C-alpha cells in the first residue's frame, strides 16, 4: 500500500544551490541586496549611468567570484572554523605555577 506522505531523504545534508553551500547562499543574497541599495542611492544622487552600471556590474561579478571561491575552498563550516582558528592565541604565558597546582586539589563533585 502506497503512503501519502513523502519522505525527505536529505534531512541532514546541507543546503546546496548551484554549487553554493549552506551560509554562502545567504552571503550572496545579502551582497546582492546591498548592491541593489547602492545602485538606488547612487542613481538617486545623479551619478552617471556610464559610471554606475560598470561599477555595479564589476562589484556584482566580484561578489559572485568571491562567494563561489569561498564556498568551494572552505565548504559548509570551514570558513567559521578558519576564522575561529585565527582568533586563537599562538601561545599562553604563565608567570606562576599556582594555577596548575590548584587544579590538582580542586574537587568538582565528579567521581
What can you tell me about this protein's structure?
This protein is mainly alpha-helical. The protein has a domain at 16-89. The protein is 59% helix and 4% strand. The protein has helices at residues 23-44, 49-74, 78-86, 98-105, and strands at 16-17, 20-21. It has a two-stranded antiparallel sheet with strand order 1-2. A hairpin with a 2-residue loop joins strand 1 (16-17) and strand 2 (20-21). The longest helix has 26 residues, at 49-74. The protein starts with 15 loop residues before the first strand and ends in a 6-residue tail after the last helix. The model has no long low-confidence stretch (mean pLDDT 84). It comes from Pedobacter helvus. This is DUF4133 domain-containing protein. The chain crosses the membrane at residues 24-44, 50-71. Pfam families: DUF4133. Keywords: Membrane, Transmembrane, Transmembrane helix.
Give the total of beta strands.
2
Mean pLDDT equals 84
User: How many H/I helices?
Assistant: 4
Low-pLDDT residue spans: none
Choose one word for the global shape.
Answer: flat
Assembly level: single chain
Q: Can you write the helix and strand succession as a string? A: EEHHHH
Organism: Pedobacter helvus
Protein name: DUF4133 domain-containing protein
Keywords: Membrane, Transmembrane, Transmembrane helix
Transmembrane segments: 24-44, 50-71
Amino acid at each position: 500500500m502506497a503512503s501519502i506522505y513523502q519522505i525527505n531523504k536529505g534531512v541532514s545534508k546541507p543546503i546546496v544551490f548551484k554549487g553554493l553551500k549552506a551560509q554562502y547562499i545567504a552571503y550572496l543574497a545579502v551582497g546582492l541586496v546591498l548592491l541593489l541599495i547602492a545602485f538606488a542611492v547612487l542613481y538617486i544622487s545623479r551619478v552617471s549611468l556610464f559610471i554606475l552600471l560598470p561599477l555595479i556590474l564589476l562589484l556584482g561579478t566580484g561578489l559572485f567570484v568571491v562567494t563561489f571561491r569561498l564556498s568551494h575552498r572552505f565548504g559548509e563550516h570551514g570558513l567559521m572554523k578558519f576564522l575561529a582558528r585565527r582568533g586563537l592565541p599562538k601561545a599562553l604565558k604563565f608567570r606562576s605555577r599556582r594555577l596548575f597546582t590548584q587544579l590538582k586539589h580542586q574537587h568538582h563533585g565528579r567521581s
